[in-house]
Amino acid sequence: LASRMLKPEDTVIKIGSVKIGSGNFVIMAGPCAVESYEQMIETAKAVKKSGATVLRGGAYKPRSSPYSFQGLEEEGLKILKQVGKEVDMLTISEVVNTQHVELVAEYVDILQIGSRNMQNFQLLTEVGKAKKPVMLKRGLSSTIEEWLNAAEYIMKEGNYDVILCERGIRTFETYTRNTLDLNAVAAVRRLSHLPVVVDPSHGTGRRELIGPMSRAAVAAGADGLIIEVHPHPEEALSDGAQSLTPAEFDVVCQEVQRILSVM
Ligand code: PEP
Ligand code: MN
């Protein structure tokens, strides 16, 4: 179902007035984790001004360490929904288990499947039954074929609104948090009709590399970007080192627009 052989034309996902895919470029931005109403409203107003149409914010955080901040859970979803409504932006947040799919779907416009759950087939099946678009992040050590098969699990249940997200893979390199695989963007655009967005925040783990990798992603044919932005990155409860300030994010957006205008 995800293959371009069966469906040659690009899929366009429509959510309200926002279209994603086939030349409709989308910018998603916001903090790694929802921390407070104040943090979210400040971030949302800023990223919207810079051109983002989707507000991100994790409420359930699958952290590498069990002692790290795990998210505000349903309270976080309430804040995200409220802020999205106030600033008129779509929202995206991660769902981490099958029991939460209905709950998260009540609050957000796009369900995110995180890297660590890319091959959680029961979860993929559940979001396949949900009536909301799904953004499927590539697993930390997953091949392109495994990633597309994961999309297939969702689509098999009747949910065709799947957005693929390249977020970097595990390699021997440790200078960056992950290795952003732009090969995969170009490859997946050929293999599949689904939109593919790039996450340079998790793909690099380093604030100073987000601008260059965002520009490269656009040039490689990505249909969108998802970028972590925090009003005070040094105080962020998660992923501060890879979070841009709103001012830095604005510069990245302007550079991206310049590249899009000549493509
Ligand atoms: C995230 O988007 O905050 C996240 C946890 O990403 P990933 O699943 O790609 O690590
Ligand atoms: Mn993060």
Automatic annotation (TrEMBL):
Swiss-Prot/TrEMBL keywords: Transferase
Gene Ontology molecular function: aldehyde-lyase activity; transferase activity
Origin superkingdom: Bacteria
Domain DAHP synthetase I/KDSA: 13-258
GO biological process: aromatic amino acid family biosynthetic process
Keyword Protein transport part of the UniProt annotation: no
Protein name: 3-deoxy-D-arabinoheptulosonate-7-phosphate synthase
Residues of the full protein shown: 71 to 333 of 334
